[in-house]
Structures are given as C-alpha cells and as structure tokens.
C-alpha cells in the first residue's frame, strides 16, 4: 500500500508540475500588443525599410548606416510593439534590429545580439539596449562583451542585482518616467551604472508608454500622452547615438 501511495503522490506532483509549466508557456506565448499604431509602422516607405525575418529590422532606405542599435523587447511584449520608435530612429540613419525572444522573454536569450552582429559585418559600431527586462538583458550582454558594444540604452530598465557596470567606460543612457512602476528600482540601480551615465527623467511618463502594447498591470497612470512620451524617448536616444565617440 505504501508503494502505491508513493506512486500516486509522485504522479500527482508530476501532473501539477506539468500543468504549471503549460500554464507558464501559454502565459508567455500570449504577449502584450501590438496596438494598431504599431502594426501601421511595419510597412516600408521612402525613409525606412522593414524586414521581419529572421529579426524585425529597420534599415534606413537612403543611407548606409555605420551604427546599429540592437533593441531587446520587454518581458512578454510583442517585438512589433516598438516598431514606431524603431522607425523614427532608423529614419535618422541608424540600423535598428529588434529580435524576437524565446517565450517572449529576453532572459532566455541574453546573447542574441551576437548573432545579429555577425549578420551585419558592415556595421562598425553597435549599441545595445532594451525596455524593462529587455534592458536588463542588454546590460548583461554589454557586461559580457565590453569590446563589442559602443553604448548601452536603458528604457525603464536597470542591470540585474548581481551585475555591476559601475567601473565600465561604456557610454550609458537611462530613460524612465516619474510614474513608472519600476521607478524606485531604477533609481536604486545608479550605483551599478557608470558615474558618467546620462539620466533622462520623463515627467508624467510611465512604463507601458515606451511601447505600443496598451496598459500594463501594476503600472502607474501616465500624465502625458503616449505620443509625447515616445517623442522624448526618441529624441534622447538619437542624441545619445549622435554623441557616441
């Protein structure tokens, strides 16, 4: 009887673990976004070309870029949700690449930027960045490959608690909003970033308005429009890219 009881318990535990795993996969594979405004930004025009395979890429149509910007999407956010911002940055003469992530979680593929770099040998300098969890994983890549990265851009993001870039010579830009649900954690990360880090604080901005994927549970209520917030984000990011040595 004891043996049958033990087998039954093991079977039930295995079933619960399987159901939990399947539930996690379903949750991860149903990402936020994209909103209609993001889908509208996925067509090529005279300024920017749009390619969707193997990554979502935005090369400028009338220029040969020397600087590339690899952008990791936020956790459980559809990469297409960042298309409007990527287009604006690409239109200024930069290659922008947004890779899809396994189960929509950059933590499962933090080294994906290496594959992108290998696919574009004509790019002379690479900047990595991302939103939220994507930014944390971009920071991980920059930490692991300091000779391959010319800059790091964090949108409502910060390095993981076990990671420090405080002594790095790497140029870093950190942008976040005053209503961001992760504001306190972002501000607490200052000691893990270089002292020369550029900080841009968006009055009234929140977490979800860095993309076009709708509201996000637990986020603060934005006091500015999505368009206004993203205009600031694009302006600050382009300024950082133009100032790279």
Question: Care to describe what's here?
Answer:
- With 245 residues, the chain is of the alpha/beta class.
- It is 34% helix and 15% strand.
- The chain contains 7 helices and 7 strands.
- It has helices spanning 2-28, 36-39, 83-91, 112-119, 133-144, 183-188, 226-242, and strands at 56-58, 67-72, 95-98, 125-131, 151-155, 172-177, 198-202.
- Helix 5 (133-144) links the parallel strand 4 (125-131) and strand 5 (151-155).
- It starts with a helix and ends with a helix.
Uncertain regions: pLDDT < 50 for 5+ in a row? none
Instruction: Indicate the mean pLDDT.
Output: 92
Strand content: 5-15%
Number of strands: 7
- Count the helices. How many? 7
Largest sheet: 7 strands, mixed
């Amino acid at each position: 009887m004891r043996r049958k009881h033990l087998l039954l318990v093991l079977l039930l535990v295995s079933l619960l673990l399987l159901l939990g795993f399947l539930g996690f996969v379903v949750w991860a594979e149903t990402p936020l976004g994209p909103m209609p405004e993001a889908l509208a930004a996925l067509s090529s025009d005279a300024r920017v070309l749009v390619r969707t395979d193997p990554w979502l890429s935005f090369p400028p149509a009338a220029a040969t870029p020397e600087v590339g910007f690899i952008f990791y999407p936020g956790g459980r956010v559809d990469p297409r949700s960042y298309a409007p911002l990527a287009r604006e940055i690409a239109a200024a003469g930069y290659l922008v690449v947004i890779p899809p992530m396994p189960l929509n979680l950059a933590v499962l593929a933090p080294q994906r930027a290496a594959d992108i770099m290998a696919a574009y040998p004509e790019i002379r300098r690479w900047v990595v960045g991302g939103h939220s969890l994507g930014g944390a994983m971009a920071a991980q890549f920059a930490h692991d490959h300091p000779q391959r990265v010319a800059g790091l851009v964090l949108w409502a993001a910060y390095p993981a608690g076990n990671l420090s870039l405080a002594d790095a010579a790497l140029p870093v830009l950190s942008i976040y909003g005053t209503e961001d649900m992760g504001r306190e954690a972002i501000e607490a990360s200052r000691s893990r970033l270089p002292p020369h880090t550029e900080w841009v604080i968006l009055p009234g901005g929140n977490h979800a308005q860095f993309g076009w994927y709708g509201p996000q549970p637990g986020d603060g209520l934005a006091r500015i429009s999505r368009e206004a917030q993203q205009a600031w984000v694009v302006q600050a990011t382009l300024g950082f890219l133009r100032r790279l040595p």
